[in-house]
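Quick one: structure for this chain?
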Amino acid sequence: MKWLSLPVFMSLLIILIGGCTTVNNERNIAADKEEISKVIHNSIGWAMTKDKELVYSCFADDPELFWFSPRDDGTNYGFKAFVETTEGFFMHEDFKAVGFEVRELQINLSRSGDVAWYHARLDDFNEWKGQPANWEDVRWTGVLEKQDGRWVIVQMHFSDASDKK
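Got it. Here's what it folds into:
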């Protein structure tokens, strides 16, 4: 009987350990998605206070960083271009962030857990020289990568629907 109980005990132990690993993985996914959501929101929300340190922390400091804007003159290739856009436009005294809303945000994680992609609708309310400069109901997609233990955006795409009136 003692010999029979050892294999049963080992089997139960393996099942319990496997179950705990699954629970930990689910918790990590939820924590990663929460962190990713925060990065996504901060990548837009930083402009309310013009917190450059916050915005730069949201993006990969990489020449491969890519940001497609609805207008070609807003498209950025590389972190250096992104910094130039931030300094030359968003930090300009004539630009004022008024508010934003991220709607319908969906975040997906790769099986390896180091890449994520998202899609959402964005309302981004701003002023340029006192006049409205809004993006309303813009489609927003992007890719994040976990680098050095933190999530950063490596690619973004903003677009207006062609059938939008």
